[in-house]
Design brief:
It contains 19 helices and 16 strands. By secondary structure, the protein is an alpha+beta fold. Helix 4 runs antiparallel to helix 5, helix 5 packs antiparallel against helix 6 (131-152) and helix 9 (243-260) packs parallel to helix 13. An 8-stranded mixed β-sheet has the order 1-5-6-11-10-9-7-8, with helices on both faces. A 5-stranded mixed β-sheet has the order 13-12-14-15-16, with helices on both faces. It has a 3-stranded antiparallel β-sheet with strand order 2-4-3, with helices on one face. Bound molecules: histidyl-adenosine monophosphate (HAM). Histidyl-adenosine monophosphate (HAM) is lined by residues 186, 188, 217, 219, 224-226, 229, 231, 233, 235, 387-392, 410-412, 414, 416-417. Histidyl-adenosine monophosphate binds next to strand 6, strand 10, strand 11 and helix 15.
């Protein structure tokens, strides 16, 4: 039960604690093992990137980028704020002259503060200017000096001050303070950026990479939906146009879920055609036209999406829209010959691998980069947020980010949901007990206890050595609270005759053993 303290984890974030973290580790270890057998290597991209990496790949109009992304500003917060004030408010001067003089002094103060901050950043090389930023900044600095001059006249030249302010407002807005960064909402975009940056197209193709780590989306928190959540993902970049690649990726995913013991998994697949080709464009146009006809029966979100992204209407969970959506044209009937052949081959390849799937023509996914194969896996015990994994093909994404034409496909598992589902089906981790609790009394026994603890731990046993002396009764009580299997009792007698007492806590039985015999006995269990 959480208790009230001054500080709490931010809404939508949480602490992962023992014993749950043991299950997280087990799941991640299983991913490392399974993915390695399929020839994947691990990549660890940074958690933030230039925000354009995400906007360009996922799509600037998607919810993930438009509503849910966390931005960071790679600049001193005060400078960034000052620049916004200068950019937006600097020429709003009141008319009465006394007020105006005060406002001018106030703005001049802000301008000087901004200059001071920028100078400090430049001197520590926290920001560096290119030629055009240098020119803007020079204009800005000259402007401050000129304002001071215009103000010193009698009477002050207010028309000139106003003119200078306008120049400086423009110049300040062009002073480059650093990149706008985005906290990653997913990692596919980062992996593609890294593929290009490290010239991975020179490696044997395709390149198979996987990752685990936190992602960030400003969503409304609920069961299975967090603002910091964790993904285990994999991407295949480069290589031929072969449906076997799609099928093997999905086979690996299902093998992984199987090894984790995930229950009630259901794999849905679909093909959404080729974005650059006529099949998708033609279908989207048709869908938009059909949606227009029923527009007034749709909810506000779907109405908006008719314009922005009609495919997303198919995702709607609104009860009253379901009957309407069922009657809409289906993409499978509008795929071009190549996309249709590709989809058929993917299904055939899945069957060759014994992977059971269900087709879902409404599976379009919420990120813009997908084409052809899309898939999702649901699992039991998750309520409404039951998608435990999503993925698909994204040929063209690497090119969109400035790389060579490259095929791509991948998936990301929501690790929080995977863990939740495992726990709901009784596969959670039990609190970790101890193998041996060392109940020691007396100075001499303490030295022996330290040595014994070290040797037992070296041999791989979980050992608890109390840091202060306890009465035997108290020590045994602690031992059973910590779920210890044995208590090793070390008092003066034991140390003197070299015969240590080992108590089995489950039945209370005791035996006397030498140090070596004790180690051998524990190892034999
Ligand atoms: P996605 O469908 O946005 O795809 O996310 C994948 C999975 O991450 C979801 O199925 C879900 O399990 C989990 N997830 C998403 N948002 C949250 C959240 N707020 N809280 C908890 N879990 C969440 C992608 O991210 C793509 N990058 C997948 C991909 C890789 N496609 C190709 N390669």
């Amino acid at each position: 039960m959480a208790s009230k303290s001054k500080f709490q984890a931010i809404r939508g974030t949480r602490d992962l604690l023992p014993p749950d973290t043991a299950l997280w580790n087990r799941v991640e270890q299983t991913a490392h093992e399974v993915f390695t057998t399929y020839g994947y290597g691990e990549i660890r991209p940074p958690v933030f990137e230039e925000s354009d990496v995400f906007a360009r790949s996922i799509g600037a109009e998607t919810d993930v980028v438009n509503k849910e992304m966390y931005f960071l500003f790679d600049a001193r917060a005060d400078l960034f704020g000052l620049r916004e004030v200068l950019r937006n408010y600097i020429v709003v001067l009141p008319d009465d002259s006394s007020g105006r003089a005060g406002t001018v002094r106030f703005f001049l103060e802000l301008l000087r503060k901004f200059q001071e901050g920028v100078e400090a950043e430049l001197s520590t090389r926290m920001i560096e200017f290119d030629e055009s930023a240098r020119r803007s900044y020079q204009l800005f600095k000259d402007g401050i000096a000129a304002v001071a001059l215009a103000l010193s006249g009698n009477p002050p030249d207010s028309a000139e001050v106003l003119r200078l302010f306008r120049v400086m407002k423009l110049a300040a807005s062009q002073v480059h303070l650093g990149e706008t960064l985005g906290l990653r909402p997913e990692a596919t975009a980062s992996v593609c950026r890294a593929y290009i940056e490290h010239n991975m197209q020179q490696l044997p193709q395709p390149v198979k990479l996987y990752y685990t780590g936190p992602m960030f989306r400003r969503e409304r928190p609920q069961k299975g939906r967090y603002r910091q959540f964790y993904q285990i993902g994999a991407e295949i970049l480069g290589g031929p146009d072969a449906p076997a690649i799609d099928a093997e990726l999905i086979e690996m995913l299902m093998t992984f879920f199987d090894k984790c013991g995930l229950q009630g998994t259901e794999l849905s697949i679909n093909s959404i055609g080729h974005a650059a080709d006529n099949c998708r464009r033609g279908y989207v146009a048709l869908l938009r036209a059909e949606l227009e006809k029923v527009k007034d029966k749709l909810g506000a979100d779907s109405q908006r999406r008719i314009e922005t992204n009609p495919l997303r209407v198919l995702d709607s969970k609104l009860e009253h829209e379901q009957a309407i959506i069922e009657k809409l044209p289906r993409i499978a009937d509008h795929l071009c010959d190549e996309c249709r052949a590709h989809y058929a081959a993917v299904k055939h390849e899945l069957e060759l691998r014994g992977v059971i799937y269900r087709e879902n023509w409404r599976l379009v996914r919420g990120l813009d980069y997908y084409m052809r194969t899309t898939f999702e896996i649901t699992a039991q015990g998750l309520g409404s947020q039951n998608a435990v994994c999503g993925g698909g093909r994204y040929d063209g994404l690497v090119e969109l980010l400035g790389g060579p034409p490259t095929k791509g496909i991948g998936f990301a598992i929501g690790e929080d949901r995977l863990i939740l589902s495992l726990q709901e089906s009784g596969k959670g981790a039990a609190p970790q007990g101890r193998d041996v609790y060392i109940a020691w009394m007396g100075e001499r026994a303490y030295a022996t206890a330290i040595r014994a603890a070290k040797n037992l731990r070296n041999a791989g046993f979980r050992v608890e050595l109390p840091p202060t002396e306890l009465k035997f009764g108290k020590a045994l009580e602690r031992a059973s609270k910590l779920n210890s299997r044995f208590a090793l009792i070390l008092g003066d007698n034991e140390v003197a005759d070299g015969q240590w007492t080992l108590k089995t806590l489950a039945d209370g039985s005791q035996q006397k053993l030498t140090e070596q015999a004790l180690l051998d006995y524990l190892k034999s269990l």
